Amino acid sequence: MDATEFRRRGKEMVDYVADYLEKIENRQVYPDVEPGYLRPLIPDSAPEEPERYEDILKDVEKIIMPGVTHWHSPYFFAYFPTANSYPALLADMLSGAIGCIGFSWASSPVCTELETVMLDWLGKMINLPPQFLAEKEGEGGGVIQGTASEATLVAMLAARMKAIHRAQSENKNLTQGDIIDRLVAYTSDQAHSSVEKDSVIAGVKIKHIPTDDTFVVCGSALKKVLNEDKAAGLIPFFFCATLGTTTCCSFDKLLELGPICNQENIWMHIDAAYAGSAFICPEFRYLLNGVEFADSFNFNPHKWLLVNFDCSVMWVKKRSDLICAFKIDPVYLKHDHQESGLITDYRHWQIPLGRRFRSLKLWFVFRMYGVKGLQEHIRKHVKLAHEFKDLVLQDDRFEICADVILGLVCFRLKGSNELNEALLKSINSARKIHLVPCDMRGKFVLRFAICARTVESTHIQFAWKHITMLANELLRSQKLQ
Amino acid sequence: MDATEFRRRGKEMVDYVADYLEKIENRQVYPDVEPGYLRPLIPDSAPEEPERYEDILKDVEKIIMPGVTHWHSPYFFAYFPTANSYPALLADMLSGAIGCIGFSWASSPVCTELETVMLDWLGKMINLPPQFLAEKEGEGGGVIQGTASEATLVAMLAARMKAIHRAQSENKNLTQGDIIDRLVAYTSDQAHSSVEKDSVIAGVKIKHIPTDDTFVVCGSALKKVLNEDKAAGLIPFFFCATLGTTTCCSFDKLLELGPICNQENIWMHIDAAYAGSAFICPEFRYLLNGVEFADSFNFNPHKWLLVNFDCSVMWVKKRSDLICAFKIDPVYLKHDHQESGLITDYRHWQIPLGRRFRSLKLWFVFRMYGVKGLQEHIRKHVKLAHEFKDLVLQDDRFEICADVILGLVCFRLKGSNELNEALLKSINSARKIHLVPCDMRGKFVLRFAICARTVESTHIQFAWKHITMLANELLRSQKLQ
Fold it and tell me: Which Pfam family, an example, fits this chain (chains A, B) (predicted)?
C-alpha cells in the first residue's frame, strides 16, 4: 500500500470510524459468540500473497465486529468507562505516523517535553500541590504510564528500594532477602486486585486493611495493623490508598492516613484510577484533600477524561526516588545532554524501555474541549448516576448499597445473592445493556457505571425500565416455583 | 467535535500523515532543539474554553515537528528500526475507535481470540515448534506484550515463582527471602540493559556471562559460571539468551545453551527483539535453531515487521507457568466462561491489567503484505546492510567490527576512541543522518542500522559519502594540529 492508496483507504476508515461511533447504539452491546468462535472463521496461516483491502474490510464486519464488546455503546454500564473522543483519535493518528520511541530525551525531544508540560497542565487542573509539578525545577514531576497497575508497581518498587537502603544503612549485615521477607505493603480490602498482583511481582507481603461500614480505610484501622506488624518485627514500607474503589467508588481517608504514613516512613501512593478525572471539577476536589501527604499519585485520563487508552498519569514528589529504583545506562542509550540535569529520560520512570508519543492525546483533548468542556463531561456522568440512583430508590424492592458520589451506582434486589445473580444473568443474557457485579462483604451486588461519552438520560431511563421488567419476570417466576 | 467535524478533520489528518511520510526525506532527521525548548512556546496551563482545531494543527508544525527525531526518515540509522506501515496505521485507527479493553475474554472476545490466532500465524511463519502454539489445544501459546523488556520480565517472574516453589518443596523451612537471596539470573555481557533492569524489579541477582571473540555466549562459558555459583550455594534459575544483540547483532549459541538450561532446570528465555522478524525468511531461520529447548521466546514485530509500536510477541511452552505467577481473580473480573478451560484471560499473561486491541495491526499487515511482501522487506534491509559494509571495506581507513548478519553494521575508523567519538559527533552535529554508538570491549564503535521502510540504495550511498567527507575533514584537521 503506497501513500496514494493510504489517502483513499484512510479516508474510508475515517468514515467507517465515524459511522461506527455514530451508530453504535444499533449494535448489540455484548456479543453472542462462544469461546473459540473465531478460529474456524479464518485461515490456519497467514497468506503468502497480499490480499485485497476490500476483503479485509469486509471481514471486519463479518468476523471482527460480531466478537466485540462495545465499550462505547451508551448501553454499556460495565466495569468503569474507558475514554474515547474524536480529538484523541486524531492525535493518535498523528502519533502513529510520527512513530517515535521516546525512551530518552534525544530519541525524540518533543515526546519527552510535551509529556512533562502536559502533566503540569493536568496537575494544575486538579490543583495538585506544586511539589508534584516539574515546572519550578523542583524535585517532582509527572509521567504517563500505561495503566494504573503499572503506576502502583513503579511506586511500590521505588518504595521497596528506599526501604531496603534504609534497613541496610541501619544494619549492614542484612541481605536483601532478609529485608524483603520483612517488608509489608498495605492497601484497602476494597482495593483493586492489581495492587495485590504488584506485590506478587515485587516479591513482598501485602495486607488488606479492613474498611469501615462505608468501605473506607480510616487512620485507626491502618494504625492498628501497623502496630501489630511492627511488634512482630515486620517492616511496613508502602501504603496504597484508593480514591474511588472499583467495587463501590469509596474514598480512603487521606487526611487521617497521610500523617500516619509520613510519620512511619511509609511511602503513600494514591490510586485514583477512575475518580481522579473528577478532581478537575472544584466541587469534587475535596475528595483529593490529603494528597499533600502522598509520595505518588495516579489516575487514568483513559478512563474518564476523554483520552483514549492508554494514558495513566502519575506524579511523584521526588523523581529521584523512581530513577534510583531503575537507572541503568548503556552506551547506546547515552546522549550529549544526559548529564546536564535539565532533561528527563522517561525510561527511568517506568517498567518498559520503549514508549509512544501519548502526550499528543492530552494536548489535543485539553485544547479541543477546554477545561470547561471536560468538566461538563464529568458533571453529566455524575448527574446521570444520580438519576439512576433516584430511579432505584423509587422502587422499594431494590436497595442502594453504597453512597453515590461520582458515576457508579451499586444496587441490588433486596433478597438473596442467588436472586441477584439470577437478575444479572438475565440482564446480560438479554444483551440490551451490559453490567458486571461486585462482592460487598459477601453480598452479590450489581454495578451500574456511567460509561459512554454519548450516554444520555434516555439510555438511563431505558436501562432502568429494562432492569425492572427483567426483575418483574424473575420475581414472578420465583413465586410460581 | 462531533462526528461530522471528525469526518472532515480525520480526512485532513490522513492527508497530513501521508504528506509527512511521503516527504519525510525533506525534514532534518534529528532536531536542533535544546533541552527545555518547548515550555516557553506553550501556555502555562490548559485553556478554559475550547480552542480552534486550525490553531492546534498550526502548532503541530510550529511547535511539535521541530522537536521530533524522525525515526522514519531514510536518513535515520540509529538504535534499531521501529516499524511503520500504512496497513498498521489503518488498523490502529480502527482499534482506537473500537477502544475495547481486552483484559479478559468477556471484556471483548475478539480482542483475545484474534490475538491467539495471529500469534499462531506468526509462530508458523517463523516455524516455531508446535509446542509454542495454541491451536492444538496444547499447553503453549502466544501473547502480545508492550515491549521486549516486559516479555523478559514476565518470563523472569514466572521462572522465579517456579524456582521458589521448587526450593520450598525441597525444604519447607526456607522463606521466600532466603530463596530470593540465592537466585541468580544470567544473560550475555552483550544483552540489552533491560534484562538487568528486569532483575532489579524481580529483586534477584544477575550475572553477565562473558562472550567469546564474536560477542556470542557459548555453552562452556555458561557452564563454568553455573558450576561456580552452584558450588557457592546459589540457585541458578533463569537464562536470557539473545538472538541479535543490541550492540552488534550477535547470536548466542542456543544449541549449546539450551540443553544445559534444560538439564539444570533453568528457564531459558530467548530475546530476539530485533532479529526475530528475519526468521520469516527460510535463509535466516537457522539462527533460531535451538528454540526447541526454550521455555519462552520473544521478538518485536514493532521493530522490523511493519507493525507499529507497540507489538512485542511472546510465546511460552506452558502457559500455566505464566498464569501461576500472576493469577488473582476478583469478582468484578469474573465471567461465565472463565472456568471452562477453553478461554484465555490475557491479564494473567502480563504485568498491566488493561490492554488494547493490538492484534488488528498484525492481521492487517499480514494480509496486506502477505508473507512474501514481509520477506521482501527483510531481505531489502539485509541487502542494504551488506551494501554499506562493502563500502566501508573499500576504504582501508575504516574497519568492520562484527559480522554483518542482518541489518546492522558496526564500524569505526582505525584509531583511537577519541577519533571515533569525534567522527560520530561531527556526523550527528551535521544533522544529515543520525547514528548512535556502542561499546565493544572498550572500543567506541559506530552502529549503522538500516531502519526506515523506505530506505534505498541511494540513501546508503549518500550516507557513506557524507561519513567519508566528515572523516576526511576530521583526519585533515587532526594532521594540522
Answer: Pyridoxal_deC
Q: pLDDT, tens digit, for every residue of B429-481?
A: 999 999 999 999 999 999 999 999 999 999 999 999 999 999 999 999 988 76
For B406, the grid coordinates are 542482518
Q: In whole angstroms, give the CA distance from residue B84 to residue B310.
A: 11
Helices then strands, each counted (H, E), chain B: 14, 11
Q: Which three cell numbers stand for residue A455?
A: 450516554
Best-predicted range by mean pLDDT (A334-343, B288-297, B344-353): B288-297
Q: Least CB-CB distance to A35: which of B17, B101, B337?
A: B337
Answer whether A11 sits within 8 Å of B10, measured CB to CB: yes
Pairing of strands B205-209, B141-145: unpaired
CB distance B354–A147 less than 8 Å?
yes
CB B356 within 8 A of CB B102: yes
Instruction: Report the residue from A13, A117, A360 with minimal CB separation from B90.
Output: A13
Q: Residue A160 phi/psi, 5° resolution? A: -60, -45
B136 pLDDT above the threshold of 90: no
Q: How distant is the Cα of B214 from the closest Cα of chain A, in angstroms?
A: 19
Closest CA to A366 of B47, B42, B58: B47
Amino acid at A33: V
Q: What is the per-residue burial (b if ≥16 Cβ within 10 Å, else e) of A384-400?
A: bbbebbebbeeeeebbb
Cα gap A191→A207, rounded to integer Å? 11
Cell 549503522 locates to: B448
Cα A9 to its chain centre, rounded Å, is 33
Residue B2's identity, in one-letter code, is: D
DSSP-derived secondary structure letter, A50: P
Interatomic CA distance for residues B413 and B12, integer angstroms: 47
Global pTM reads: 0.96
Asked whether the beta carbons of residue B366 and residue A46 sit closer than 8 angstroms, the reply is yes
**Closest chain B CA to residue A84:** B99
Of B93, B94, B180, the CB nearest to A180: B180
ipTM above 0.90, yes or no: yes
Reduced to 3 states (helix: H, G, I; strand: E, B; else coil), residue B267 is strand
